[in-house]
Amino acid sequence: MSRSISSRGDPPADAEPESVARRLRELFLAHKRDLFGFLVRKVGAVDAPDLLQETFLRMVRHDRPETIEDPPAFLKQIAVNLARDFARRRKTEAGCLQFGDYVIDPPAPETPIEERLDYERRSALLKAAMETLPPRCREAFDLHIYNDVPLAEVARRMDISDRMARKHVSLALRACRAALRSEAE
Q1: How many CB atoms lie within 10 A of CB 47?
Q2: Is residue 46 predicted with pLDDT exceeding 50?
Q3: 64-99 exposure pattern, b = at least 16 Cβ within 10 A, e = fewer
Q4: Which of 40, 51, 64, 87 is the most buried (most CB within 10 A)?
């Protein structure tokens, strides 16, 4: 296979959908190992397969893949962009995953009645928010927040990827924030 699907901007003569699909498959087989190695170095072995798949999906979803001048370079750039976005998302999540408002310690017996009532109200709001979540999401949140299990261990125990564990916890946190915010309004 040549370096490009099309040497010019025009579709090749055999640019039938089956031909394009065959060429994309060949491109995948020829470059998946290199791209996977790159992604493992950038995001780790757990998340690399998801990003590798997304790399090729974006290529396939391209409006006219047969017009791409240098498909391997195009794939590499997609992978670079996905890895960069992933790193940014991880950094943002790390900054946003603040648990203080969602782990509410029970008040001491000598606490004024207003504070105990506030505790009860906030606890009820958080419990109601958690009950709206899917069971696996609740499980990940409970393990991570209330049982202090690291996300990597949550993923291992639940037999899911680190990325999925993060998504579950992030979804639960958003639900908690929304419940507390709506109550404050």
Answers
A1: 21
A2: yes
A3: ebbbbeebeebbbebbeebbeebeeebeeeeeeeee
A4: 51
pLDDT for residue 126: 83
What is the model's pTM? 0.48
Place of tokens 């170095």: 41
Q: What is the mean pLDDT of residues 166-184?
A: 83
Number of alpha carbons in the 13 Å side-chain half-sphere of residue 36: 11
Quote the tokens at residue 55: 């790399």
**CB under 8 Å to 58, separation ≥6 — which residues?**
78, 82
Distances from the Cα of 75 to the Cα of 32, 57, 182, angstroms: 10, 10, 44
Q: Would you state the structure tokens that stand for residue 103, as one six-digit string? A: 């782990």
Cα-based distances in Å from 77 to 8, 25, 62, 99: 20, 18, 14, 36
C-alpha distance from residue 161 to each of 13, 121, 180 (Å): 43, 34, 29
Running DSSP on this structure, what letter comes out for residue 9? S
